[in-house]
Give the backbone structure.
Amino acid sequence: MSNTEKEHKNIPEHVAVIMDGNGRWAKERGQDRVYGHHAGVLSVREVVNTAGAIGVKYLTLYAFSTENWNRPKAEVDALMELLVATIRKEVDELHKNNVRVHVIGDFDALPPVCQKEMQEAMDMTAANTGLNLILALSYSAKWEILRATRQIAEAVKNGSLSADEITDEVFHSHLCTSRFPDPELMIRTSGETRISNFLLYQLAYAELYFTPTLWPDFGKDQFLAAISDYQNRERRFGMTSEQIQPSK
Ligand code: FPP
């Protein structure tokens, strides 16, 4: 298969990204961690544009975890301000590019100004049909799974659901990502090889791609390299190679 053919075939529908390494990137330059987060926004821009251009339908970015609230207050405040400023600055361009913005996570835990800006971006882009840009904010998978479990337990308690009706589909419908397919590819930058409480249920069969590149150095070429790596993998979902490709 030629590279061009490959490029258009087997593009993952949903790519999830742990954007890691902003702090180390800044430190290497003798700068404050926040400097790294600012540089990281340029990578976000480039990856969003590239994902949209090659036909990825869903891109989930882990922008702020539940655990990130424990960082020094100055960094938390700076990250929240950066999120608000970035979405404010970029929303017209995203809208023009037919991108639909979504937020997953504990929305109520976000500062009111952040909630307002995100809600406006979601409302403005609600009818767009191109890339779905899903920002995970104040998100952690354990929080999400516990929340789903509580909702299901409530439904069983009030009699609207029986225990044997709790299928994968029902469980999925209680997750923050109920409107989205599960990611086929998860990318983590900066050399760390952990999932860090990100989409634990949804990543069950995802291909995992780890790169030593720090997030601010991750752009179009690095994203395309991850896609190309994914395209060379065989996804078996617990079956054998022969079942997937009978002529093999
Ligand atoms: C991880 O690097 C990065 C974050 C916790 C924040 C990511 C946020 C952005 C890239 C900016 C805003 C994003 C959007 C979607 C507008 P780290 O600080 O953990 O780096 P380290 O591991 O080197 O310390």
Notes: The chain has nine helices and six strands. The domain at 14-230 is CATH 3.40.1180.10 (Undecaprenyl pyrophosphate synthetase).
